[in-house]
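CORE FACILITY INTAKE
Project code: CF-77B
Contact: R.S. (postdoc)
Sample description: multi-component assembly, two entities in total
Requested service: structural model of the whole complex
Turnaround: standard
Below are the sequence entries exactly as provided by the requester. Do not edit them.
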Amino acid sequence: MDKFTIQKMMEFTLGDSVLEISYIIASVLFIMGLKMLSHPDSARRGNLLAAFGMGLAIVATMAFHTKDGEPIGNHLLILVAIAIGTVVGWLIAVKVKMTAMPQLVSLFNGMGGAAAALISLMEFPHIEASLVERTGLVNGHVLAILLGLLIGSVSFAGSMVAFLKLDSRLGDVKAPWIRYVNLVLLVGLLLSVAGIMIFGQNPEAASGFVYLMFAVALIYGVLFVMPIGGADMPVVISLLNSFTGVAAAMGGFLYNNQAMLTGGILVGSAGTILTILMCNAMNRSLVNVIVGAFGGQAAGGSDVGGSIKEISLSDSAVLLSYSQKVVIVPGYGLAVAQAQHLCHDLDKILEDKGVEVRYAIHPVAGRMPGHMNVLLAEADVSYDKLIEMDDINPDLPNTDVLIVIGANDVVNPAAEDDPSSPIYGMPIIKARDAKNVIVMKRGMGKGYAAIENNLFFADRTRMLFGDAKETLQKLLAEIKSL
Amino acid sequence: MENILSFVYEYREAIFIVILSVFLGIEVISHVPAVLHTPLMSGANAIHGVVIIGAIIVMGHAHTPGSLILGFLAVVLGTLNVVGGFVVTDRMLHMFKKKPKK
């Protein structure tokens, strides 16, 4: 070995080791970031930590990554692409309303899935010739590429459908045949992966089939999310989130890149657990969500007795003003009406009158677990007024007035009483224990689960019909004029 | 059978990392309060934006116009995922700050 070669090797290993060290640091930062994200006090720092890790990994890759001794080229174009993505991503993230948060997460998730699919699509024709000579297409690279393509495309198409549905631009399509078509597509896709690996001679010959797989995977992604009801969308987004994680990890496998591998798998497994936790909070199984039995069939046959009793605004105002303890149960209806700020006004005005006001937060209130907390926090409601379901339930019998604003299934006693009800077993806020219940509701429509709610017919319950925002405005005026 | 075994042997390091990461992911978030589910999902969403590294690698070694265009698109999408994800998460968590008591 002459001097020049040795020197070249030294340089090569130096950059390489800096790169690997950066990846190790990035992986550690991802793990710590995720850990910190699961505690309220450290969550924000955790997010920044993970973002810093990501920045480090990106810079190190641009600067030190080599493939067959060839460094990264097209620097300018890459920087332009990053600049475009940064500006657009930043603007969308900052502008969007807090109520639109779930669809936004879904949108960004889809982008990641698409990127993973594109990488696979481009890498497939470039599988090393020596590897193909040695093993044909039966090797880890082909498997990683095909799975990355498959999972990335499903995640992309599915996320886009979820985005459109949450944005109310697309309705549910509940046709029984979709389930069977999906099964056929899924089996077909998995068989094609095996087929390409076993029967494929070389990448060129198989590439046509790979494009076909790409198209079918996109269709599968659409059909996978299409029949799933709006209430289950958070679970689906979380699931697709972990899919994209796995797709990213496939890229790590392909490039032997540890940062992508750990980052992707970490999100894949954490996302799966999160999905299961969300399902548990709704007392549903993941299979149940995916197959989409909920709301598809007729609701449980409980007879609802009693009659609806309305209450006037002025009576509500008096009742609230002269109570000692008031609990507000916010639901998605509140978020839809954008009434969280008015809700906070109500709570302030009552507090000024010496009434103790707290919020009872069901784990799945809103559109995603924790969504309601974000919405109320946006409206400046103090964090320690938000009481979780299990903590507030024992105190409800001492509560003078409980106001349900735009919530339905989370206060439905059928979850405790009626074994035939689809939501039987779901933990609920025991609204009926309160001394008085006021339900603000648009009309007598049923909740997402499409089940009658006995609470509305109970003796202690009074209904206050109307749009949450308007009703709250009028109620505020009434209380002020007292 | 031999194929599978040699396959496992060849990729043992990656398989090792995958298995450990799965346990790590489960362990790291299994005690998260429901309040933080949404920000956590969003944060995890941003982390899988690490796929951008793959996009940069593809783009950095692209030579034909077709692969340049696709690579460019992949980098843009990956960046959207990363930047949008982290910014949205930060915006959400910003609201969780404890307000000073009056």
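Facility notes:
- Chain B has two domains: 1-31, 34-102.
- Helices of chain B lie at 2-10, 12-29, 37-47, 51-60, 65-94.
Invoice: internal transfer
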